[in-house]
Known about the structure:
Blueprint: H1 3-13, E1 17-20, H2 26-33, E2 41-47, H3 55-62, E3 73-77, H4 81-91, E4 99-103, H5 110-113, H6 117-131, E5 140-143, E6 159-162, H7 167-176, E7 182-189, E8 195-197, E9 205-212, E10 216-218, E11 223-224, H8 231-234, E12 240-246
Parallel strand pairs: 1-2, 2-3, 3-4, 4-5, 5-6, 6-7, 7-9, 8-10, 9-12
Antiparallel strand pairs: 10-11
Helix pairs in contact: 4-6
Amino acid sequence: MNVSSYIDAVLITYSNYYINFKSISKPNFDLVCKHIVPDRVIGLILSNDEDTPGLAELFLTYFQINQFTHLQSLTLIDIGPQLWENIIQNMVELKNLRSFFYTQPSRINPWISDIIGNDLDQLDSHLFDIYSPILPQLCRLRLTHGDFLSSIQFPQLQHLILERSSVDIVKHISSVAAQLKSLQTKFILNNSTTKFIYPSTQLKRLALEIEGQFLKILNHRYNKRIFSQWSTMANDSTASCHIQFHV
């Protein structure tokens, strides 16, 4: 049996499958794409990083995201604006989508270095306006920042990662995401009088990276001024909390 026949056999055997296109060679990528049945794919990772340059563009010559009608999980890695709009305009049609991760590598993206100031902010805002309608249906979400989340309700959200955020955004998320179980983010405190409303008590994992001088935590049950005392969450042996300060 040749490789093509083997892939056909595998894809026919399983009614649903998860496809990870990170760190795949171009010949294998082409081979897999030719055998994919879009409505059987429930998980998809698309990467345009230094290991797989140009493959996301190539993928979009084979498919549009809205063809994956049963897609539950979508991860985009280092996808620039020339592809973002195409993907997210179709992504909002995915009614079964429950997990959306967007990540960037630590290196500076070439497309970011070409866009500065207000142009980047306007692009960011424009893209958010397109994909924001899908956010309330998500259970898992990862974004590079939370700048535009203050107007969004999250009735289903259970796990959230924001690579950059603010106290106000964390407050908002805490107030509208009643099912939130894990939260990971980073923010800067420039005001020594800032009061941080302790995130919801149903949290099982909290990871904060904080830059600033001082933080006062207020909890609706306890008023604590230091991180060594953790109220409800600290008394739960299944919970975890990790705080890093950068002064």
